[in-house]
Design a protein that fits this description.
Elements (H helix, E strand, L loop, with lengths): L2 H8 L21 H6 L13 E6 L13 H4 L8 H6 L1 H13 L4 E6 L32 E5 L10 H7 L4 E7 L1 H14 L3 E10 L3 H14 L2 E3 L1 H14 L1
Parallel strand pairs: 1-2, 1-4, 2-3, 4-5, 5-6
């Protein structure tokens, strides 16, 4: 029996029911017809036995302008996610601490040195430290940093080599932006045979609508969207299985 099927049986904490949609951030933007259509996506949600945490593009540019509404910072700082980025800092720090306590590897992505645009968005004025990981996330010597040039963390990077070498079966994903690099990475992770899990409180976008709809779509097609509390529950259960 393949590892994934074994994992599904180990981590059958709850079944995803469309009636539970109100537990997620997208409940106020998804109409009843769409909920009915997506009934067929009911399934078991899980985290595998060998996960890694992938933190996407948590570099300084994203936090420029401070914790203000995005509309108030993007003219001067087009790369900023404003208050959405700042609101995700504490949950992300908790996720990092949780991963370290479970000895789960942490992988950070940042912009490559060639400065090729990952999207068509207007570019900020770039400084020497613009693409350094924000100081709120205190890097450890064992953390891995990959540089990417396009939206997906898999495109043109050694990510697959790292994951294969560590025998990873699941990717716990957070960062930004939900509708861009997070989405592209989650779809590629699924395509390459890894199980993507997206942590709702630790993922953000400049647009609330894009954030919610992207999470809804990813959750029902390619990934399991979980709260930080759910992730902790899965990891604690995983620990007890050893």
């Amino acid at each position: 029996m393949c590892l994934q099927i074994k994992t599904w049986r180990l981590f059958m904490i709850r079944r995803l029911e469309m009636s539970e949609v109100k537990q997620y951030c997208w409940h106020d933007v998804i109409d009843s017809d769409t909920r009915d259509i997506y009934q067929s996506y009911e399934r078991v949600t899980f985290i595998g036995m060998k996960p890694a945490v992938l933190l996407i593009d948590l570099y300084n540019l994203v936090y420029e302008g401070g914790s203000l509404p995005v509309k108030d910072v993007v003219k001067k700082y087009p790369s900023s996610c404003g208050i959405h980025a700042w609101n995700a800092i504490e949950p992300t720090k908790q996720l990092i601490s949780l991963a370290r306590s479970h000895q789960i590897p942490l992988i950070y992505s940042t912009q490559g040195t060639n400065r090729i645009q990952a999207t068509n968005r207007q570019r900020n004025v770039v400084h020497d430290n613009s693409y350094e990981i924000h100081e709120a996330f205190q890097l450890a010597p064992t953390d891995i940093i990959i540089q990417k040039e396009r939206a997906s963390c898999f495109f043109g990077t050694p990510l697959i080599a790292y994951l294969t070498r560590m025998d990873i079966d699941s990717l716990i994903i957070c960062g930004e932006s939900t509708s861009g690099c997070v989405r592209a990475t989650a779809v590629d992770a699924y395509s390459y045979g890894f199980h993507p899990v997206i942590v709702e409180e630790c993922t953000f976008d400049r647009s609330i609508i894009s954030h919610k709809v992207s999470l809804f779509d990813l959750h029902h097609k390619y990934a399991d969207v979980m709260s930080l509390g759910e992730v902790k529950g899965h990891l604690d259960l995983r620990l007890s299985a050893f």
